[in-house]
Write a structure and sequence with these properties.
homodimer; alpha/beta; 5-stranded mixed beta sheet; elongated; DNA-binding
DNA sequence: TATCCTTACGGAATTCGTAAGCATG
DNA sequence: CATGCTTACGAATTCCGTAAGGATA
């Protein structure tokens, strides 16, 4: 039994049991993967993968039981490396943050600025995706930290911490009728074509919920994954926009006006998620602390340690 | 990083950091061990072991943090093998039971008889030792199941299940004065020289505690690790004996008489312990069930699973 | 027929024991 | 000086990519 065999098994389960894909993903030849997997199956005396003829089609019953343990071993192996690096080069390393456009473009900017100043030797990589992709990236160990408003809590492999709360706002072209409204209502918004986020993104679920609760069917004419695109279409006169208020910048968005709508939509909480059982470097803990300043560091650490060490050796 | 490197590291911590001993324990040459450990340290970029000149003297700070993870990886690797074997050869395998003389010689006999009939293809190995040794054997993965009355709860790596309760009894040579006593008291026992268990064994602590509570200083003239030896000396007239009542056999011990003393000493509970986080074969679970018949099997399984799977992958 | 897995072959890389060297207590 | 660790060397083993073969959809 060796780590490569285990790695191939895990990767096979991730690559839909296509060993050719596994080979590409781990940069070896397909024949090598095939051989190593068979070696492991021979050593253990059970077939891990179900086969139809020569193709792998899924996990066998033993395979289903073994896979979680395989994943745990590989995670621990990774943990060993990180723990060692923490000692070897305390403030040097790499932090992979998976997040959505909105967070990367607006909310994380000051946090990252502070982080960079504090840890100039840490290479910080931002990975963008929709909230589900963001969660998966961390769930699979491709990134260390996930930041998004949606989807993180639903991922079984993640622990989450609440970050900042924010509201949506309405944006309109300068001179729009709604600018003169004293207080916005959902009924008023429903009168106009709306440009807002894609269903998976940035609190869109709260927008839909608010309209649905009043029995309104808003006329959403364009959806996009980020506020920059939305603002572009609002500016071009396609309708009024609903975006995260943090995405509006009076200086930059001179043709647009921001209307308060905190009373219309439920507040959103942006969350941070990390993989259960994963060891985090010191600078990663510091990043989490920057994101959730009200949580003291010891609390963060003890929560993570619970998952890392709770097997009571 | 490979499993042998990790194995050598673990073994070094067990063999008091003597790599020559490690080499003997794992059947390779000392130079190989030395090299592999250095390889791992180089790869991780930290020294795991503290060195004075060329000798290893202990773990470094990083080493202390890494070791538990190393142990966990190796335990999981072993778990993989067992899980696979469980599927490959359902009722074939090996069960290593570590226990004390008293349990092996008396209490376990019927359990093992039933077990053997149910699993004729399982090789059952009994390892004897004192309760601390028994606990350690399981703690280190040398045995699967520990059975003893003492010490198991104190071992941090073990989960324990309560088995049967039993009492001590007093044994005397036929015709002894005490045979005519209507009801034994500790004061009466303290009048005679006593032959009983070694301090670590078989509920001896309860015996001492009972005398101490009354301020009595019993005259323990001979101690032994098992009832057979004790009975021999009682028979030879060295004193009265205090042994587990299960160890008295009227037919075999014709020259001796058993006197009830359940009211004098606290009852003992023999416990069974297994290593936290270790996967147990089906027949091992069955063995536990035979030992604790009142606990239903599902309860046992869920307790063990808690430790095996509680990292929520 | 295109895709995917297995297997034989052989060069390359790794592994591991022997033996010599050196440090410690 | 006995014990214990490191290192150089070289034989043995293992690894892994190429390429051919066979199975599936």
């Amino acid at each position: 039994m060796n780590f490569n065999q285990l790695k191939f098994v895990r990767e096979a389960s991730r690559q839909d049991f296509n060993l050719t894909e596994v080979a590409n993903a781990v940069f070896v030849t397909q024949s090598g993967v095939s051989r190593k997997i068979k070696e492991l199956e021979d050593e253990l005396g059970v077939e891990i993968f179900q086969r139809r003829g020569k193709r792998l089609t899924g996990l066998t019953e033993p395979g289903k039981q073994l896979l979680p343990v395989v994943e745990r071993i590989l995670l621990d192996a990774e943990n060993l490396r990180r723990m060692a690096e923490q000692f070897a080069r305390e403030d040097v390393g790499r932090l992979d943050v998976a997040t959505t456009h909105t967070q990367a473009r607006y909310a994380l900017v000051p946090i990252i600025k502070t982080f960079r100043a504090r840890f100039p030797k840490v290479h910080l990589a931002l990975h963008q995706g929709n909230p589900n992709q963001v969660a998966d990236m961390v769930g699979q160990g491709e990134a260390d930290i996930a930041i998004a408003t949606e989807a993180l809590d639903a991922h079984p492999a993640l622990v989450t911490f609440p970050g900042y709360r924010w509201h949506h706002c309405v944006i309109v072209p300068a001179g729009h009728d709604l600018e003169r409204a004293s207080k916005l209502t959902l009924e008023m918004l429903a009168e106009y074509p709306i440009v807002t986020y894609d269903p998976q993104f940035t609190g869109r679920s709260h927008i839909d919920k608010a309209f649905a609760a009043k029995g309104l069917a808003p006329d959403v004419v364009i959806t996009a994954m980020d506020a920059d695109v939305i603002k572009t279409y609002v500016d071009a006169g396609f309708g009024i926009g609903i975006v995260a208020s943090i995405a509006f910048d009076r200086a930059r968005d001179q043709h647009l006006r921001q209307l308060e709508s905190g009373h219309l939509f439920e507040a959103n909480t942006t969350k941070l998620g990390v993989r259960k059982g994963a060891y985090l470097r010191n600078f990663a803990l510091e990043f989490i602390h920057l994101f959730t300043p009200e949580l003291e560091r010891a609390k963060i650490q003890s929560t993570l340690k619970k998952y890392l060490a709770n097997r009571d050796l």
